[in-house]
Amino acid sequence: MSIIDLHCDTIGHLIDNKDIELKKNNLAIDIEKLIKGNSLAQFFALFIDLNDHPKAFNRAMDMLNKFYEELEKNNHEISVAKNYEDLVVNKEEDKISAFLTIEEGEAIEGSLKNLRNFYDLGVRLMTLTWNYENSIGYPNCKEEFRNKGLKTFGLETIEEMNMLGMIIDVSHLSDGGFYDVARYSKKPFVASHSNSRSICNHRRNLTDDMIRTLSEKGGVTGINFEKSFLIEGGSKSAVKDMVNHINHIYNVGGIDVISLGSDFDGINPKNLEISNMGEIDKLIIALQKEGYHEDNIEKILYKNALRVIKEVL
């Protein structure tokens, strides 16, 4: 079965360690592991920690340039996709599609011109916040931010992303920001790497009402493999806990709202039952044993994400 994964942080390792290459490495994501996992498309994040890189635009551009260098070295196996049609062409040429994303909306530094520049360079999804307040809005990592909505520039950003054809990502965003996106976005949006807050009471996860809202808007949430988002006090990222989240989200929002957002190479690499994308069959087998029909497994693995790609991009 094909796989679309909505989030990984591999690019940061490529730029910060000259010994790591995209073709083969000791990370959770490389081309060989993507091929083994039958990856149709992998979303690669330009992740910026504002504390480490206050010049966010420059950091994102450096990461972008580095990633394009890696793609050029491996252009027979992987290629950037900017829309559904590109993905189809890549598949016909037996290539993995790489979708470029930004994780930390301050990469555009409060400028819609910068947003359009990133779009022109191939970026097709933006996670509006990470763990800091920015010009767009507030993160969900602090209780004081929970009910704060998008700022004026954040609302302008939503409108511009809709116009351009970019996927809006609400993972890390405050609860208030989530509902502003739901209210003002004219297109489906995603929580690229978030689980169920009812199953694991972590601010990074979605409440049942959020899941229902996301489903009603035609969006998806990507199941995150980080153990602290799977089970409270968990010492291991276990497949059974992923299935628990999938079951609950299915019951709350339906099968069409579930996708994959591993967060590989951004999460703690220790004690992962699925240690890399080449082992994704462990989840497939678990879903089969749980009684999921093949068509629903395919929706979780790639078809739901593909629908959003086709509709928004």
Structure description:
- It is built from 12 helices and 9 strands.
- It is an alpha/beta fold and 313 residues long.
- It has a single domain (3-312), classed as Metal-dependent hydrolases (TIM Barrel), CATH 3.20.20.
- The strands form 2 sheets. Strands 1, 2, 3, 4, 5 and 6 form a 6-stranded parallel beta sheet that branches. The chain has a 3-stranded parallel beta sheet with strand order 7-8-9.
- The longest helix has 19 residues, at 294-312.
- It starts with a strand and ends with a helix.
- The model has no long low-confidence stretch (mean pLDDT 98).
Features:
313 residues; alpha/beta; TIM Barrel; six-stranded parallel β-sheet; three-stranded parallel β-sheet; 12 helices
What is the CATH superfamily? Metal-dependent hydrolases
SS element count, helices = 12
Shape: globular
CATH class: Alpha Beta
What is the CATH fold-level name?
A: TIM Barrel
Percent in strands:
5-15%
The termini sit apart by 23 Å
The main pleated sheet reads as: 6 strands, parallel
What's the count of strands?
9
Number of domains: 1
CATH architecture assignment name: Alpha-Beta Barrel
Uncertain regions: pLDDT < 50 for 5+ in a row? none
Percentage of residues in helical conformation: 40-55%
Q: What order do the SSEs take from the amino end to the carboxyl end, as H and E?
A: EHHEHEHEHEHEHEHEHHEHH
Rounded to the nearest angstrom, the radius of gyration is: 18 Å
Instruction: Specify the structural class.
Output: alpha/beta
Mean pLDDT value = 98
